[in-house]
Known about the structure:
GO terms for molecular function: DNA nuclease activity; hydrolase activity, acting on ester bonds; metal ion binding. By secondary structure, the chain is α/β, with parallel strands linked by helices. The chain has helices at 19-29, 41-51, 75-85, 107-124, 138-141, 143-153, 170-178, 195-203, 233-244, 248-263; strands at residues 3-8, 31-37, 58-63, 90-99, 128-133, 161-163, 182-185, 209-211.
Amino acid sequence: MRFVDTHCHWNEEPLKAPLEEQRAAAAEAGVVRAVVVGFDLPSSRRALELARQPGVPEILAAVGLHPHDARTADEGFYEDLRALLADPRAAALGEIGLDYWYDNSPREVQREVFARQVALGVGVGKPLVLHLRDGKDPEADGVYGQAFRILEEGKAREVGGVFHCFGGNASQARAALDLGFHLSFAGPLTYPKNHALRDIARDCPLDRILTETDAPYLAPQGHRGKPNEPAWVVEVARTLAEVRGLSLEALTEAVWENAERLFCPGGPR
Ligand SMILES: [Zn+2]
């Protein structure tokens, strides 16, 4: 079986466990590809550096600025990001989006920086890795509604992408799928109380579903409280296979093909 972790942070320093150990554990578990996702310029550069190192799992990079740090974006930032995006090892633009839970950057600034990064990604034809988190009052904050408007206006449909660690409701899932995006599931899918999330994962078209860890965050149920590792994406895949009534093999192969189509459109590199 070939598992894929479409979202992890092996670019976050300091790592909780040495990269070589984590990579060996992932390879041992059958993980053959990991997408290392940037959240600012240094972590994006680091993701590209890792993507140049041969080994198993193969590493792909995403480059972008997390909404937490949107306030740091100046004109120089966009120039630097454009240069990083031109690297053939940059498989995607991300993680970008809106986070009204922490509000680390003013919401208006988050929206502007999100829209500009969407435009950059669409301009170079690379898929988008989205981070969306509603505020304490989802009704009033409406992160998904605002994000969908920005994505529609930015013609994000042309490049598609993924709602990383999807945490919205069923109608938001529907809207994301209607926009041509994928839904990616992480450790929370395995938490006993998350029935509604498992229902969404069950109903998502098989050709739009992805698996991830968001390591070192969100360890799956059996490992909760520990720093997460890409090796444990297998637990997410296992839960997905279960809720969909598929064999682990069939689920894993479908996810592999989805990731391949989204992140490697030119075929094997
Ligand atoms: Zn992340």
